[in-house]
């Protein structure tokens, strides 16, 4: 054993000790300048250029178009053609990336393949942005939204289009590999079309189109920007950590670009072209039949005439047109259990302890008024706010805890509010009607989950028993939670139950499982958390373990199916089961 300890303190400890010594001897006149600004010794990862931990795992994607369409149908009214186009091309895009990574030799043949960037067209308020956000959320890929009007050509005042890619990396928490499989959504793209009457350079229109050409196809974009102090600080920190000036770039080959806009005036260009291709009587007939639907006949030449560069149009091979929404569509949006408008308004009142419900006739009247706004689905929000704003202000200061929106309230909100505040009988009537509407909504939710989510649940080995449907509908209604989110929660809980079955089966030497009624009984617990469900299963099997071991030793017994009675009274059930199994004839 050495007489002296040869282990040395690290750099920071040495600096601290030397600094304290010099301070005692010379006072505060002498200080140690930390070498923290200099590069630290390079690790093996820094020398080799490989990230610690092996880097990000390969991209994996297995969603098919019909699965994505079914998901969109839960939230989006109409727009069947647009949903089909988007789901198909987006799924193909990401599945192709996943396939190429799994089969690199075959992928080499696709060197000149054109990326399926998408152009969305349709009037304001028809759900263009909502559709893309839903898709990104479901697929779990990084997603950012930008406004085309805020960008200018690189080198001019205004946003740089390359910043979209940098924002995508930030959205992916700095994970460049993950960001390279993201979606960039650029709205108001029609606003960067060149005006036919403009003379001279147009850096905010043509320049933006040209700046987008390379990212939409394939290019490498530097994350470090000279004019961005944040990126400069990040570069300094990287240099301090590794001692290398690392060039961090993002390749846009697999980033999907989706553009959207209302394209006011484009329909006239298409109409002119279509009518010029027809002659005489046939022309007028064609006009009548296709009036209002010319956008669906759009061609590249129409977009070029509208003001886009031909190279820009060529990088948007997929075009989807969304239909204008009717009054009936507005009603369907409001009546949908996933209606973000109705759910958001209920939550606005719920934060004050006020429970809100809508009569069906009131929803239809709101839809009628919203149609007159001519702002698409945004009109629904506007009408809703006008009706309920004063209620939202007054009711939190009262003892009123139930509010039902009817047709009279929609037409005369002020009159109904005064009556509600003054008359206890009216308040009691609202409470009674609220309870009745809750029952109607519960049935609607149950039906919705069975119809829309039935196949999804079965794909995850979850049977839609009547009791289970009621539990899911009740949780969705009471907590204002998305039905799909509730279903995902039940899937996890039932997987935990099956996990407990597998664990006790291995321990006792006999296959143990709960029947459907028993599973439903476990799920009826008040606090339906993963921990509570696992604890409940552990308690049940702890009471049964000795008896289950005996059943495993019994000849001819390979399986024990625990019924509902076994969940309620596990000891009595297992004692009876063992007694019958080992009964002497």
Write structural notes for this entry.
- This protein is of the alpha/beta class.
- It has helices at 11-26, 44-48, 65-73, 80-102, 104-107, 128-139, 162-171, 176-179, 206-217, 229-242, 266-277, 280-290, 300-306, 310-314, 327-335, 340-350, 360-373, 378-394, 407-411, 413-422, 424-459, 466-479, 483-508, 516-523, 530-553, 564-568, 570-581, and strands at residues 118-121, 143-147, 151-152, 159-160, 183-187, 220-222, 249-251, 256-261, 318-321, 355-358, 402-405, 511-514, 559-562.
- The protein has 3 domains: 115-321, P-loop containing nucleotide triphosphate hydrolases (Rossmann fold), CATH 3.40.50; 327-443, Helicase, Ruva Protein, domain 3 (Orthogonal Bundle); 460-581, no CATH class.
- The chain is built from 27 helices and 13 strands.
- Helix 20 packs across helix 21 (424-459).
- The N and C termini lie far apart (76 Å).
Low-confidence stretches: 1-6, 33-57, 284-292
Number of helices: 27
Question: If you consult CATH, what is the topology of the largest domain?
Answer: Rossmann fold
Would you state the CATH class of the largest domain?
Alpha Beta
Ends distance? 76 Å
Spatial ordering of strands, largest sheet? 2-5-8-1-9
Q: Shape, please?
A: globular
**Share of helix, binned:** 55-70%
CATH superfamily of the largest domain: P-loop containing nucleotide triphosphate hydrolases
Rg, please? 32 Å
Give the percentage of residues in beta strands. 5-15%
Report the biggest beta sheet as strand number plus sense, adding barrel if it closes: 5 strands, parallel
Number of domain units: 3
Mean pLDDT, to the nearest integer, reads: 85
- Number-wise, the strands total 13
Assign the CATH architecture of the largest domain. Answer: 3-Layer(aba) Sandwich
Helix and strand composition category: alpha/beta
